[in-house]
Amino acid sequence: MSSETQDHPCVSCGACCHTYRVEFSLYELASMGGVVPDALTHEVSGNRVRMNGTAQFPVRCAALIGDCGVQSICSIYEQRSSTCRNFDFDSDRCHEARARHGLPPLTPIDPIWPLAA
Ligand code: SF4
Ligand code: SF4
After folding, report:
1. Nearest bound ligand to CA 96?
2. What angle do CA 103, 115, 26 make, to 5 degrees?
3. What pTM value is reported for the model?
4. Which residues line ligand 1 (CB under 6 A)?
5. Looking at residue 112, what is its pLDDT?
């Protein structure tokens, strides 16, 4: 891991993984030809599934390692769903999640490059 990656705000955050329901198409599951591990998900209805832990309160995605605001590691980063891949760092929802967990707003001096895929 490079020092740049270690400095990225997401690495010490994880607020989004502690805030939002993570729902996506059944066809993203590994068993259906996708990549998301089936064991970390549950069916919602029809062709929709959710990450375990994201439909309860308090929210905590089952794939997350670490503590909110201290360390955040997605244990399935390479296999995460499109919902997670499309979540925008430094977006309104990112800011809202950080605020809900008492984390300071991102500032212009925070690195804004995306984490390596
Ligand atoms: S995207 Fe935003 S809320 Fe999610 S881990 Fe990164 S800084 Fe935190
Ligand atoms: S799959 Fe990874 S990126 Fe997505 S909510 Fe869970 S821990 Fe966060």
Report:
1. 1
2. 95
3. 0.89
4. 9-10, 13-16, 72, 89, 94, 97-98
5. 56
